Amino acid sequence: MFFFLSKTVPYLFMPLTLIILALFTSILLKNEKLKYRLRILALVSLVFFSNRFLVNQIMKFWEVSATPMEQLTTTKRVGIVLTGIIKKEKLPHDRVYFAEGADRVTHAIQLYKAGKIQKVIISGSTGSFSKSEIKEARQIEEVLLMCNVPQEDLIIEDQSRNTRESAVAVARIINDQLKGSKFLLITSAFHMRRSIGCFSKAGVEVEAFSTDFKTGDYPPRFTTYVVPDPGALNTWHVLFRELIGMAAYKFMGYI
What we know:
2 domains, 5 strands, alpha/beta, Rossmann fold, 5-stranded parallel β-sheet
């Protein structure tokens, strides 16, 4: 039940959903004053949530900042890559289709090639309601193998469906095979706080290596301040979904 709710409830509280709900309600109401107020609220909300500058500044407070490569010593480390970045329904299935977040994989490869990590754990199954036999961890494994990361340096966990399940499953692998190692958690910057909380709860202390940033470090431009950006709505969607997920995980005692 928690898995079902975690995948559906957040969509009810997304900014665009609330804006559409306000407009739809204004059509149904007979009170003209209330109709007017709802439409003004919807318009102001649309302007606010489509502003790239505002969401960029707010998201920066939430994302865990990037770690410079030179700060990572050559101490024995294992990289933990969380999935949730592949389009599993796209045909044909003779290749891997990355969605947003592909640098979870490319940065893991870079870290491995630079000697910053010596092994890679890839954790995650489908993360959706579909009964697809395609496992994300296995697809990412194929990519790493094509990039000449040796099979013996890859550990695959392909059963978990969410971050909490990944943390518990990876903790078991660590207790069985990797005691004494240090661990570098490689996931999206916006997802890092919840991920670290889950792994800490599972008894695994990790260092953060954030990827897939939704923010930019570009200098402010006129267009950033004024021109509505549909991409800003998506960034708000990501932030709201993560905040709701964080609250739900805390309520359930997962972090």
